[in-house]
Amino acid sequence: MTRRVHEVMTEHPVAIEKLTSLAEAARVMRDADIGDVLVVDEGRLCGVLTDRDLVIRAIAENKDPADTTVYAVCSTETVTVGPDDGVDHAVDIMRRNALRRLPVQTEDGELVGIVTLGDLAVEQDPGSALAAISAAEPDN
């Protein structure tokens, strides 16, 4: 039986409004111990901001984190998957698009989760090093 995305995804993804400053986004990511946030415009997905985006598209370009919005540097070409889609479908989408994380939304656009490489490693190859790292508790 094929597993569904909703069975492996992380529920309640962290989302921030597109006009949020990079400095605030970095604090949100730090406090939630995550490497990405979903960027929304009035609740609708419009981008994904990663820790790599902060470094490559902001800090390395000397953009002021207090005055630059997340929308100015986030990836806006978002690809999503539905909660009832098969895990194999999510893997295929991530492979074809070279993605490490995939927002999960319902047909009406409600964000309900995010599925990551770590989630999929735990699901499909629980003995792998990535699965072990992903399943470990943070060492704060």
The average pLDDT score comes to 88
End-to-end distance, in Å? 38 Å
Q: What is the CATH architecture annotation?
A: Roll
Total separate domains: 1
CATH class: Alpha Beta
Share of residues in helices: 25-40%
In short:
With 140 residues, this protein is α+β, with helices and mostly antiparallel strands. Helix content is 35%, strand content 21%. α5 packs across α6 (129-135).
Explain how this protein is built.
This protein has 140 residues and is of the alpha+beta class. It has a single domain, classed as CBS-domain (Roll). The protein has 6 helices and 6 strands. It has a 3-stranded antiparallel sheet with strand order 1-6-5. It has a 3-stranded mixed sheet with strand order 2-3-4. Strand 3 and strand 4 form a beta hairpin. Helix 5 packs across helix 6. The longest helix has 11 residues. It is elongated and about 50 Å long. About 6% of the residues have low confidence.
Give the key terms.
140 residues, alpha+beta, CBS-domain, three-stranded antiparallel sheet, three-stranded mixed sheet, 6 helices, 35% helix, elongated
